[in-house]
From TrEMBL:
It comes from Streptomyces luomodiensis. Keywords: ATP-binding, Coiled coil, Kinase, Membrane, Nucleotide-binding, Phosphoprotein, Transferase, Transmembrane, Transmembrane helix, Two-component regulatory system. One of its GO terms (molecular function) is kinase activity. The keyword Zinc does not apply. This is histidine kinase.
Amino acid sequence: MSGSPSAPADAAAGPASTAHESLPRAARRQVGALARALVTPSYPATPLFARSPRRWVRRVPYGVAMILIAILLPVSAQVLTSEYGVGGGVATLFGVAQSTPLLLSVTRPLQAWWIVLLSDIVCALTVLGATDPDRQVWPWPPAALIGYLFLLLALALREPPRTLVAVWLVTGVAGVALGVAFPERSNGSNVVLFVFSGVVLLVVGALRERGDARRRLAEQETISEAERARRTLLEERARIARELHDVVAHHMSVITVQADSAPYRIGGLPAEAEREFSTIAATARQSLAEMRRLLGVLRSAETRGERTPQPGLRQVPQLVEATVRAGIPTTLTVAEDVAGLEPLPPAVGLSAYRIVQEALANVVRHAPGAATRVSVSAVPAVPAVSAEDRSALTVLVVNGPPAGTPTRPVETSGTGHGLVGMAERVRLVGGTLDTGPLPDGGFRVAARLPLTDLEQREETDPS
């Protein structure tokens, strides 16, 4: 009984003990993290500047490394031989060990750093027996110092900040240890390397972090833009679905009424036929209820239900009149053959109205005062589906370049999604949309809306 309450208390004390740990314990933990960073190189071992789209930029690190090796190797061997009295073979070996890892640093800078550091320490211990110590730089010869700084530059471009701090501290500890062990030989090069290595690691590391932050920000902006476009498309599709609810609900209501009244309108029906009509009416009512529930899912919390009939092609003249009153010279042309297409399918009429509405709203927003022409005509369907259906509705809105001073937008209740909404409405009825700027600075919107029912088109073209 007494042991059970202590278990949660111990579990809760875990994070608290870490947060309130003693100073020596925290120091040991930090030292352990730095030691692990020194033996844990970044993965994967991709070359420096591998993400650059330019080929010559990706080859720059290799070129710089080869140039440094070609310069530092003979210089280091010559200096060790002439100034420090080291044998030619040993001096060449030290030159190779201190310079050739620069080529490895292009892909694995941490491993190259270990090789160069150990080579520099062994070289410093080897030249202790030089004849004239006052004229020689010790413990780090000039060529080794220069190569080491370039190696740290590659390291700062690749490894995380914790690793850079660990490398800097090890560099300082190695220099201090050699200076304390041989104070009569040390002449300050250990301090010079410690200071310059800190500057290189700090500056290059900060610049790399800044570049990574900018790249991540650009990637996030790209993702946000893609998500914004996707959200806009989904919102427009939901809006179109809500508008088409009235059209579908009307057809379902007609089916329900016809099925319910069939036994009264048609005398002498068998009992099986009456039951069949009753089943059709019940199914239609159930489908209508499901449609209402679907509409509730598509409607957001701030969206209010539509209480007015959905507009169609007959309301297009009202749009044009409102645009003219706003100061936009607009003309409407309705071809005579359009009258023969009546009654239009509700989805086609609604799509035509919304396309004209959004096109005129864009003229008001982006080309105030531009002369605009709206035309509606019927053209032969391509391909023709049947002899009874050989036409499609074409809606064309063309405006010239902006003229005059900006005016207040007259259209404030459009879809708000511009060309995305137009494309979705045209896709809904199986039509085509052509939009784009004109050479004179105007803009053109051309939509072709087939009048063939979707089911009939699918039977004719199964693909």
